[in-house]
Design brief:
The protein is of the alpha/beta class and 236 residues long. Helix content is 35%, strand content 25%. The strands form two sheets. The protein has a seven-stranded mixed sheet with strand order 5-2-1-6-7-9-8, with helices on both faces. It has a two-stranded antiparallel sheet with strand order 3-4. Helix 1 packs across helix 5, helix 2 packs antiparallel against helix 5 and helix 3 packs across helix 4. The longest helix is centred in the first third of the chain and has 15 residues. The N terminus is likely disordered.
């Protein structure tokens, strides 16, 4: 049986774990739409969110540029509205006024991250979870590793899919989800809501780079646009 036949978009409860607000849209904004449009329930959980002022490196200017946490939260709400997701939450609000970066998840004990994800599994009862791949960014790797532990079969039974963002280190896709032009354009609209995060090409979080990635993944299955995933487990 073709693997894609084992992925049902209807009657699912889908938990999307994202290190930061925008990773969920970059990695699986198209797949999220497919689940939502088929009546499945989707919850997006952002692991780390800085409430105060954050700094992000601007390669074009070679400087760190500040942005407000409240602005990024508005962006998150806008992106979720575009994707049709009404259920979203944050695991860790970094409230310390001295915190200017999201990159602190690796400083938390693994058991703390695992327990937080276990709590989401108990509360939402998903049938599918989407987790980020391990990348050069320590937050991505921390959430990936903790999610794999939390999703151990004797604790929770369901399908586990890994999505790609950028800077992947160990990503070997074996599942491709085709996207219609309408879905891909809508994904770009959701990403455009993250004004504080979007950059100019060749930055990986730019419209041109993300379009190139979608077209590249589409070539693997002879379609125009696609998202790629690594299947850790299919529960059928």
């Amino acid at each position: 049986m073709d693997l894609v036949e084992l992925i049902r978009y209807d009657e699912q409860r889908v938990l999307v774990l994202a290190p930061h607000a925008d990773d969920e849209t970059i990695g699986c904004g198209g797949l999220i739409q497919k689940f939502v449009q088929n009546g499945s329930l989707v919850r997006v959980v952002i692991a780390s969110f800085v409430r105060g002022v954050s700094r992000r490196f601007n390669k074009d200017l070679e400087v760190y540029k500040p942005y407000r946490g409240e602005d990024r939260y508005v962006e998150l709400k806008g992106a979720m509205a575009v994707l049709g997701v009404s259920d979203f939450t944050v695991l860790y609000h970094e409230d310390d006024v001295n915190v200017q970066y999201h990159s602190l998840l690796d400083t938390r004990p693994r058991i703390e991250l695992v327990t937080a994800i276990e709590d989401e599994l108990r509360d939402f009862h998903p049938t599918v979870i989407l987790i980020p791949s391990r990348t050069k960014h320590q937050d991505h790797s921390s959430i990936h590793d903790a999610a794999v532990t939390a999703a151990r079969p004797y604790f929770w039974q369901g399908s586990v899919l890994v999505y790609e963002t950028d800077g992947e280190m160990e990503f070997e896709p074996n599942l491709y989800v085709s996207l219609s032009k309408e879905m891909f354009v809508n994904k770009l609209k959701a990403l455009a809501r993250y004004r504080t995060q979007m950059s100019l090409y060749p930055h990986p979080v730019s419209e041109r780079a993300l379009t190139a990635k979608a077209e590249f993944r589409g070539q693997h299955i002879y379609t125009t646009y696609a998202e790629a995933f690594q299947v850790l487990r299919i529960y059928a």
